[in-house]
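From the pipeline queue, job 12 of 40. The input is one protein chain; the requested action is below.

Action: predict structure.
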Amino acid sequence: MPLFLKLPGGVRGGTTISTPVGLMDVLPTLTSLVDAPTPKALRGRSLLAVSPPAERLYAETYYPRIHLGWSELRSLVDARFDYIEGAKRELYDIVQDPKQLDDLASAQQAVASARQQELKSYPAELAAPAAIGADDAERLAALGYLEGIARTGGGALPDPRSSIHVLAEVKAGFRLAADGREAQAVDALRAVLKRYPDLFDARFELAEILGRTGRYVEAYDAYKAALRTSPSLAGSTALGLGRVCLKLKRWEEADANARVAVRANNMQGHALLAQIALARDDLATAEREARAASADPAAALSAAVVLAEVAVRQERFGDALAVIEQAQATAKAHRLALVADLDFLRGDALARLGRYAEAEAAFKEEIKNFPRTHRRTRVSRSSTGFGIALSARWIACWKLWWPPTRARHCRVGCQDARYPWRRTRCPRLAPTHCRALSWALTGGGDFRAIAWPCARSLRAR
């Protein structure tokens, strides 16, 4: 690929250097421009030299090894030959064979052997990305995540060149998920992993899809398998695993995984810690962790959901609206996709402030943006214009118009002998709301006969 260099004032504009160059040449070029010393151990040379000497360029990629369970690739290339070393030696004449289809390693053994010896002068140690520390590894092992981390196939790593067709199958699974066909994507990725169990990217995407579609137990197992496949990527894997643990109410596991993510410099880990604290009703910790996550725009929206909910629970409705407005401005400025619950919490705060028309509009916006997260059940309006836009999930938040400090058990539907749930309270709704109200709102009873009298009774109290 070409490398373009623009000098101040257009100096040497239009000059072309035909000899191959590499990124290692960029730093010596910059130091020569500002008359600074170039580190002696650096292999590169300045591109501004009158006649840059022709040198073989070194390249390496450990992506196949880390993400796919295949052999890493290292190479030396010059104006004539490209020598590649992975699971086997390869040599190509890039002048006569630019598509590199004819391997000359056997026919040109002297050239291949010379390149092999030269390649040994370059360090070949694998520096694992975001490697987890000993403490984190110990915590994950204690949770049973790192059992059996050895490769399932054993022996030499597969050759990327002969295995490249597998990526087409993996990408097909990714495309199915992107098109909204998650069930088919899950089947496709599982079929690939049955034959090639060491593909980290396929395992991670499978876990992500299962988590997005609410199949949390399966996602939990899939994330653990991904972590065992490539422990060096624990920073990113632990975040998804922690979110699934949160859904499964495994608080300690969720907390441990979130802290691994934080130590891997992933600010989403702070957002997850905030969500865990919120689930535990620890509002102070939730707010502190959410503010720590807010420094990173990528984590700011998730953090804003927590900050807004904390404010709503503390009846600081104006603060909640300000947080949501700021989050939506951040999303627009950085072109970030909105997250679920922002508009729901905006509607929550607006309704508590008596701004019912705006609340209804916010609820409808949430439904429009996240139709698969929230199942709309009904939109009804009373004679006073009291807008209601609820989903099955939102029933758990029917504290919208009756704060817990004032609400009491409803005396209308729930005490009627026609309803077997009378005098009981739903565990998710207690102590604010009665089962009669939630039953009617989810379609289990007549809305006008049950829910609205309940609502008026609660509201009056």
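Job complete. DSSP finds 19 helices and six strands in the chain.
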